Amino acid sequence: MTRLLTILLLMAGLALPATAQETTPEAGAEAGAAADGAAAAEQDDDDDDNGEAAGAAEGVHEAGSKFDFGFSGIMARDNRTQLAPLTLASGKPVATAEYKLKSGGFYRIDINADGSQELALSGGHFFRAIWVNEIVINDIEIRPMGVHSLEFDDAGTATISFIAIVPGRYTLSIPGSQGETQQAVFNIQ
């Protein structure tokens, strides 16, 4: 009985703030005018929050965005940039040039292997600097939590779609190789 009484008192105590917020229409208009005055005073004090005070008065907190990605957001097909493909072939360069990416950009890259030799691309630092959306191999979509390398035993193509995150200079290279042509360099800005 004592526990039941305690629970009822706690529930009543928790309900008090909700009932205290309810006002009559006349009191609501006066409270709204007071809130508008407080918001105007707050806006005068802090010039960094230009749109926040007005949004808070309306009951909406809208985060301003540097980019307008549209209804589908950053992952929309229109926002994706197709990069020049990487090539895995015995004695051929992996990439034709360095890649310059923007942090926050959505990219897609094909990795083509000709099957002339069993080759891999390794780059743990690169894969930790990006968010991998998916890897597609033979129309099979893989959504990994993490990747360290991709190895090709036969000819084929793997397509990686990702968002560049951490700025820096990263490489994907063939393990055990030392030549500059045996790596792809990604500069995320």
From TrEMBL:
Residue ranges, annotated region (Disordered): 22-57
Signal peptide: 1-20
Top-level taxon: Bacteria
Biased composition (Acidic residues): 42-51
Composition bias type Low complexity, residue spans: 22-41
Record keywords, A-Z: Signal
Protein name in the entry: MSP domain-containing protein
